Amino acid sequence: MKKNKHYSYSYIPLNTEGEKTKEQSSWRFWQKRRLLVALLAFFGFFNCYALRVNLSVAVVAMTEPVETELENGTIIYVPEFDWSSQTKGLVLSSFFYGYLVTQLPGGWLAAKIGGNRVFAIGIGATSLLTLFTPPLAHTSTALLIAVRIVEGLFEGVTYPCIHAVWSRWAPASERARLATFAFSGSYAGTVVSMPLCSLLAHYTGWPGIFYVFGILGLVWTTIWWLVVKESPEKDPHITAAELKYIQESRGTQTVEGAQLRHPWCAMLTSPPVWAIVVAHFSENWGFYTLLTFLPTFMKDVFKFETSSAGWVSALPYLAMALVLQVAGHLSDWLLRRGTFSRTNIRKIFNCGAFLSQTIFMVAAAYSSNVVACVVFLTIAVGLGGFAWSGFSVNHLDIAPPHASVLMGLSNTVATLPGIISPPLAGAIVTDRTAEQWRIVFFISSAIYLVGAIIYGWLCSAERQPWVAECEGASFSTDGASVTTARGIDNKAMDHTEM
């Protein structure tokens, strides 16, 4: 055991001769607790986005004209909620006002007490508040906006918290696949919830949307709370082989009672940090614009019914959920092969995705054919999965002990599109014409292009020198050097398949 003033290192030798022990050979897929954590995190983000996007579909049903009979027997068609485009944009963006506030506090809290509990509280509280959305909406628009802001406050901790979980649970050579697999739950949640919300609105009325997803979120919260532990060392069901593998890959072991000091000045002036921030902002601009307005766009331009718009709007997020799986595995495979440096892998995946998204968003803007437009938008959103294998795991590359706080920082800035783009789109699309929607798509394309240039210029995946300023931290060393030096590339211990 090697000790210094701040850190306690615990290296556990692995079998470097290529021979599997009896314990290693019995290490099966279903025994890998880190994969169970990833699976439950996947469903956690599934619920996050189901709770977030439900209003995007519900608002179409809430504002479409319905048959109403007056006292004199006259039949008229009026919407239940007669909102202007600006009011609708404010209602849809209100969630992000709260979501913006708790990014950094969520990252800080996760670094202090562990991400697993904060993650559960964030989703559980959002689920509970979702159950109160219909009665509050019927009471007043102001109360609906208020409850969405509070939901955003609770859900704002989720992304920073999961990086705190992965800083303890993810071997260095599996960061991209585990993180992107968990994040893909966001898009799977979007894929399932959009058409399901349409069906619920049609058969049960729009309030049923909020009741169903609120209950599902509470069920998930209970399971996560009971199963997932703060670290592999605290999981009573983890195998000795997996625990050794994770500890060896991380390179260090948690020091009880340790205090982590974040070097704020160094972090806020670090070019690689701002590369991540800009990339996160750029990806989220296009994503949030379509997430919020795609059902409305399909109805305005191509005259889709509410139920059909929900199904078609889900296709881009199905593509992204699938691409994320491929991108995460491909990124880690290239890293293990040594084909490119870690930095170049992050740049290729992120910048290549952004440039492609720029092209396909412009193509969608000029498409008058519904099939072509849906295909272009599906490709544009789907390719974002490669971008997420770039910037979203970059926090863990450059500063593992500070990853949750860095995710909080980047997601704070990346939440601004959720606040800005819905009102901006509402102000642009006053007449609901294809020409006005084209401007909305052009703005997204331009932001993707700027993001590609800045990330390609400033990105690094090397551990930053200011990481050493942290005190008494549990942190991961550079996965490339540790895994290679200590035998993790040995096939006897390469249990990285999902």
UniProtKB/TrEMBL annotation:
<dbReference type="GO" id="GO:0046942">
    <property type="term" value="P:carboxylic acid transport"/>
</dbReference>
<feature type="transmembrane region" description="Helical">
    <location>
        <begin position="35"/>
        <end position="55"/>
    </location>
</feature>
<feature type="transmembrane region" description="Helical">
    <location>
        <begin position="374"/>
        <end position="393"/>
    </location>
</feature>
<feature type="transmembrane region" description="Helical">
    <location>
        <begin position="178"/>
        <end position="203"/>
    </location>
</feature>
<feature type="transmembrane region" description="Helical">
    <location>
        <begin position="314"/>
        <end position="335"/>
    </location>
</feature>
<keyword id="KW-0770">Synapse</keyword>
<feature type="transmembrane region" description="Helical">
    <location>
        <begin position="118"/>
        <end position="137"/>
    </location>
</feature>
<keyword id="KW-0968">Cytoplasmic vesicle</keyword>
<keyword id="KW-1003">Cell membrane</keyword>
<feature type="transmembrane region" description="Helical">
    <location>
        <begin position="347"/>
        <end position="368"/>
    </location>
</feature>
<dbReference type="GO" id="GO:0005765">
    <property type="term" value="C:lysosomal membrane"/>
</dbReference>
<dbReference type="InterPro" id="IPR050382">
    <property type="entry name" value="MFS_Na/Anion_cotransporter"/>
</dbReference>
<dbReference type="InterPro" id="IPR036259">
    <property type="entry name" value="MFS_trans_sf"/>
</dbReference>
<feature type="transmembrane region" description="Helical">
    <location>
        <begin position="143"/>
        <end position="166"/>
    </location>
</feature>
<dbReference type="GO" id="GO:0015293">
    <property type="term" value="F:symporter activity"/>
</dbReference>
<dbReference type="Pfam" id="PF07690">
    <property type="entry name" value="MFS_1"/>
</dbReference>
<keyword id="KW-0812">Transmembrane</keyword>
<dbReference type="InterPro" id="IPR011701">
    <property type="entry name" value="MFS"/>
</dbReference>
<keyword id="KW-0458">Lysosome</keyword>
<keyword id="KW-0769">Symport</keyword>
<feature type="transmembrane region" description="Helical">
    <location>
        <begin position="273"/>
        <end position="294"/>
    </location>
</feature>
<dbReference type="GO" id="GO:0016323">
    <property type="term" value="C:basolateral plasma membrane"/>
</dbReference>
<feature type="transmembrane region" description="Helical">
    <location>
        <begin position="90"/>
        <end position="111"/>
    </location>
</feature>
<feature type="transmembrane region" description="Helical">
    <location>
        <begin position="437"/>
        <end position="458"/>
    </location>
</feature>
<feature type="domain" description="Major facilitator superfamily (MFS) profile">
    <location>
        <begin position="36"/>
        <end position="463"/>
    </location>
</feature>
<protein>
    <recommendedName>
        <fullName>Sialin</fullName>
    </recommendedName>
</protein>
<dbReference type="GO" id="GO:0006820">
    <property type="term" value="P:monoatomic anion transport"/>
</dbReference>
<keyword id="KW-1133">Transmembrane helix</keyword>
<feature type="transmembrane region" description="Helical">
    <location>
        <begin position="209"/>
        <end position="228"/>
    </location>
</feature>
<dbReference type="InterPro" id="IPR020846">
    <property type="entry name" value="MFS_dom"/>
</dbReference>
<keyword id="KW-0325">Glycoprotein</keyword>
<comment type="function">
    <text>Receptor for CM101, a polysaccharide produced by group B Streptococcus with antipathoangiogenic properties.</text>
</comment>
<keyword id="KW-0813">Transport</keyword>
<keyword id="KW-0472">Membrane</keyword>
<dbReference type="GO" id="GO:0030672">
    <property type="term" value="C:synaptic vesicle membrane"/>
</dbReference>
<feature type="transmembrane region" description="Helical">
    <location>
        <begin position="405"/>
        <end position="425"/>
    </location>
</feature>
